Amino acid sequence: MVTSEPDSVRVKTVNGQWIVRVVDGGRLTQQLYDIHAQAEIFAEEERLRLGLPGEPPAEEPVGPLRHGRSR
User: How many distinct structural domains can be found in the chain?
Assistant: First the structure.
């Protein structure tokens, strides 16, 4: 629980993947996506569901994406 945080939806990139972080009524959930567009669609659907204003898409990272796995 993150009871001190207001409802929110955020998209960010970590190690070449996209995380959508949703705070809904003090409960935190996260969804992981490989494709930026899919993360943004899910985030916008969650904002609509929660009655939050839309936000511009998260910016694509500059430079090559790093993946979390060693090869």
Answer: 1
Q: Is residue 56 part of a domain?
A: no
Going residue by residue through the chain, which has 71 residues, state the pLDDT in tens, using 9 for 90 and above: 666 789 999 999 999 999 999 999 999 999 999 999 999 999 999 999 999 998 888 887 766 555 554 43
Distance in angstroms (rounded) separating the CA atoms of residues 70 and 8: 33
Which residue range(s) make up the domain with 28?
Answer: 8-50
Residues 67/15, Cβ–Cβ less than 8 Å: yes
Whole-prediction pTM: 0.78
Structure tokens given for 41: 């669609």
Asked whether 12 and 58 are in contact (CB, 8 A), the reply is yes
